[in-house]
Amino acid sequence: MEKSNQTLTLIKPYAVEHGYVGPILARINKAGFRITALKYLHLSLEQAEAFYEIHRGKNFFERLTRFMASGPIVVAILEKENAVEDYRKLIGATDPRKAGEGTLRKLFGASVVSNAVHGSDSDQNAIRECNFFFSSLERF
Length: 140
Ligand code: CMP
Known about the structure:
- The chain is globular.
- By secondary structure, the chain is an alpha+beta fold.
- The chain has a single domain (6-134), classed as Nucleoside diphosphate kinase-like domain (Alpha-Beta Plaits, 2-Layer Sandwich), CATH 3.30.70.
- It has helices at 13-17, 21-30, 45-51, 61-68, 83-91, 104-108, 123-133; strands spanning 6-11, 34-41, 73-79, 117-119.
- The mean pLDDT is 96.
- The protein has a four-stranded antiparallel sheet.
- It contains seven helices and four strands; from the N terminus they run E-H-H-E-H-H-E-H-H-E-H.
- It binds adenosine-3',5'-cyclic-monophosphate.
- Residues 55, 60, 63-64, 94, 112-113, 115, 118 line the site of adenosine-3',5'-cyclic-monophosphate.
């Protein structure tokens, strides 16, 4: 499969509530990503469950989806060569305690669930996730 140059990020409720949207977007820009779509929204529980469908059945599914529906989030499409892989390097490990110095999850995350940001984990999921949140009219 040809490598996609796009990935999807979510800035999660904890990071939005703590005022980290600006600092996170600034770091994303500085790392060379172009923001081609951007919006705030507050997911319903059903929408959070649909987005995280691939995790349904896992022991953290309910905790994760309740948290993601607990407050507003920021959603963005990021464009760069090798976007999925490079963005996962920028965000660091799922658990902020294990994330490398300078990564977004280390800098702005509180826990495995409240880990500041989401990033697509494959090109295939990036395409699905970008289409989940944005129509063609909302992408620039
Ligand atoms: P995210 O990148 O949004 O994709 C799936 C999310 O599930 C992940 O970040 C974490 O927030 C959450 N997650 C993954 N593993 C666990 C776990 N063991 N316990 C709680 N939440 C988890």
